[in-house]
Amino acid sequence: MADVLRSSWQTCRLLMEDLTMELVPRVQELYESSQYMGGWDGNSDREQDHIMNWYLEGDLPPNGVKENYKIQTIRHSECNAIIGYITFYHGFPNEDIVYIPFLFIDPAFQQQGYAEEAVKGLLVELKGLSYRAIRLNVALKNWPALRFWIKTGFTAITGIHGDRAFAADAYANLELEQILLK
After folding, report:
1. Please, what's the b/e burial string for 122-145 (b: 16 or more CB within 10 A of its CB; e: otherwise)?
2. Of 62, 85, 41, nearest to 174 (Cα)?
3. What sign has the CA pseudo-torsion 104, 83, 77, 15?
4. What is the residue-wise DSSP string for 128-174?
5. How many domains does the chain have?
6. Within 13 Å, how many C-alpha atoms sit on residue 70's CB side?
7. In this structure, is the dihedral angle defined by the CA atoms of residues 168, 101, 117 and 15, taken in order, positive or negative?
8. What residues of the chain score a pLDDT lower than 50?
9. Contact between residue 61 and residue 92 where contact means Cβ atoms under 8 Å apart
10. What is residue 181's predicted lDDT score, i.e. its pLDDT?
11. 28, part of any domain
12. Any residues with CB less than 8 A from the CB of 6 and at least 6 apart, and which?
């Protein structure tokens, strides 16, 4: 398997760093502020210790190991504020793929190009580590995220998961992929 992403990397306006214990409460606040997405993905309960659990145990795929999982904060380089976070799993479903389970930008900083800048920087970082592709899951009802990921180049559909029939309380996800190395 290729190496895991560096613990700290940056773009023009952003600094991404591995989550530390002292920043778990701030990232938990961000996670809880994403509660509105529950109507799109069916996960309306934002548990109070969710980020701590991710920090300690990871958000692992089947047969996953904690060493391949990372949470990184997204910090604005000018004001030094943590404006978001992103999670990764290196090596799922294949060794040459990185999976992004979650990316979130504080609503006060959305629509300003920060998520796109972070993802473009991530693409550069992962190409340098010889990963072939990046995959992610996005809720079909999360239209803003679908638009964002497709605009950012995640145009290959590699899977559809969830409920098979449409209903107000039914949820499904698209698994999208972007090829890094051919």
Report:
1. bbebbeebebbbbbbbbbbbbeeb
2. 41
3. negative
4. HTT--EEEEEEETT-HHHHHHHHHTT--EEEEEEE-SS--TT--EEE
5. 1
6. 20
7. positive
8. none
9. yes
10. 80
11. yes
12. 125
Predicted pLDDT of residue 40: 66
**Is residue 36 situated within a structural domain?**
yes
- Tell me the one-letter amino acid at 38: G
Query: Sign (positive/negative) of CA torsion 62, 121, 55, 141?
Result: negative
Q: Where are the alpha helices (DSSP H) in 18-132?
A: 24-33, 38-41, 50-57, 114-128
Asked whether 2 and 59 are in contact (CB, 8 A), the reply is: no
Burial per residue of 98-107, b for 16 or more beta-carbon CB atoms within 10 angstroms, e otherwise: bbbbebbbbe
pLDDT of residue 37: 66
Q: Which residues neighbour 61 within 8 Å (Cβ) at sequence distance 6 or greater?
A: 89, 92, 93, 99
Answer for the pair 41, 111: CB distance below 8 angstroms, yes or no: no
Q: Is 150 part of a structural domain of the chain?
A: no
User: Is residue 100 within 8 Å of residue 16, measured between CB atoms?
Assistant: no
Q: Residue 61 is part of a domain; what is its CATH number? A: 3.40.630.30
Which pLDDT does position 44 carry in this prediction? Answer: 62
Place of tokens 């398997």: 1
